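Input record (one chain):
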Amino acid sequence: MIVYGGSGHAKVILDIINSKDGESVTFIFDDDKSIKTLYEFKVNHNWTEEMLNQKAVIAIGNNLTRKKVSDKIQNLFIEALIHRSAVISEEVKIDNGSVVMANAVINSSTKVGAHCIINTGAIVEHDVIIEDYVHISPSATITGNVTIGEGTHVGAGATVIPGVEVGKWVTVGAGAVIINDIPDFSVVVGNPGKVIKFNNIENE
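The corresponding structure, as predicted from the sequence alone:
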């Protein structure tokens, strides 16, 4: 397996891989040539033909960067990586390339898209739709019947109340409480959450 990314988020991914029987890392790759090693692994900076034949996981926390990498490389992506301490209902569907960290909970009839991060201790309740490239940060709570649009980042400790629709490429600030629908590209902070500006991802 190839781990694409050699920084802090990759360390957590490696912990999950090491906790699973039958999984092993063959290469770690990062575009940043200043990153030489990660634990005992040498970090590669040239994408070789040998790498093309292996499954990969993108170990990058930034949602937009994760999308750009997934569009760029031609590898097949691994099935979801799930920490053994996470609690996942049998009625949950998680698409390839997504990762679920330690002590996260995902309850019944929830759909998690591709290349998402459900981070440490996050709670995702029943009947939630999480689209591709979303990051639910540590200790955030997504209550029932919520929709989270593509590329959205829900900050640490934030709460989204039942039935809310959060648009795509939204940034929800740490500790925010979202009680109303949120339009695409918004930056939302506070309790109750208020839109303070808009993201412009086209220029990033």
